[in-house]
Structures are given as structure tokens and as C-alpha cells.
Amino acid sequence: MLPISADKIAEVIILARELNRAENEFDGFVNQLTDDEKTGLVAVFWVGRGSFEPEDFAEAVATAAREATTPTAEYLKGSPHLSDHLEAGMEALGLDPSDAEDDLYRPA
Q1: Is the distance from CB of 13 to CB of 104 less than 8 angstroms?
Q2: Rounded to 5 degrees, what are φ and ψ at 59?
Q3: Mean pLDDT of 79-101
Q4: CA 62, 25, 75, 3: dihedral to nearest 10 degrees?
Q5: Could you tell me if 37 and 3 are in contact, meaning their C-beta atoms sit under 8 angstroms apart?
Q6: Of residues 2, 7, 34, 3, the one with CA closest to residue 96
Q7: pLDDT in tens, 25-44
């Protein structure tokens, strides 16, 4: 089970695309996530980057929790392809990133 919602991952993707102007918002959003959500976010990133296969997602989550030594926002900002990796990770896990992103823009 994914420890973070698709909508929250989509929000990170949107903010990551605008890091040069929205870094404070990115940091604030990621920093307010629970520890479980942060490890899930990193695991999705790793799957999208190809460090783990989708079927090894639970292992990716456990590894992310065990190896968390750098603040998550800082760690993720170190990747120039962050939004691409998160989108690829969502797709590999059977989630549609464009649907999640559209949900964020759809008026309530």
C-alpha cells in the first residue's frame, strides 16, 4: 500500500517543476508530510529513477526509512529530474500522474 496519496505526490510534482520560483512552497509542503509520507515519496522517486522495480516497492519504502539522513526536501531537490522521476514512479506503480494533477486544478 502506498503510504502517500497520489494527490500529494502530484502536488510535489507541480512544485518541483517550479522550484526556481516556488522553492519555499516546495520545502513547506514536503516538510509538513508525515515521516511515512516522506519515505513513500522517496520510494516513488526511486522507482521512477529505476533504483527499485515496482514489485520491490515495500523494500524501497523500508530502505528510504532506514537511510533517511538528509531532510527529504533537500534530498529530492538534488535531482534535476525530480518531477520526471516522480511521474515515472507513479506510472510504474499503476497511478496516473496526470489524473492526480488534474484533480488539484479541478474546482471543488
Answers
A1: no
A2: -65, -40
A3: 89
A4: 10
A5: yes
A6: 7
A7: 999 999 999 999 999 999 99
